[in-house]
Amino acid sequence: MSLKAFHLIFVTLLISLAFGCAAWAFNNGRPGWGVAAIATGILVILYGVYFLKKLKKISYL
Q1: Is-contact 19 44, C-beta < 8 A?
Q2: Residue-number span of the structural domain to which 36 is assigned
Q3: pLDDT tens-digit series, residues 31-41
């Protein structure tokens, strides 16, 4: 597995964790933490898009 593939898997897991934390926070009455987790998830998505554009020519293997 290449570093690029591992990085994309890690970013995907981080996005899932951020939005899962947001759902947990909103369900437990902590809207500030929920908004922070959503903002983090959006920033990680933007980072993932940037990463894919930057390493477009490198294969996944």
Answers
A1: no
A2: 3-54
A3: 999 999 999 99
Q: Which residue, 53, 45, 50, 36, is CA-closest to 15?
A: 45
pLDDT-derived band at 44, boundaries 50, 70, 90: very high
Handedness of CA 53, 56, 58, 61 (dihedral sign): positive
In a domain, 46, yes or no: yes
Would 26 be classed as within a structural domain?
Answer: yes
- Both tokens of 14, joined, read 């981080």
Distance CA 18, CA 39 (A): 9
Handedness of CA 26, 30, 31, 36 (dihedral sign): negative
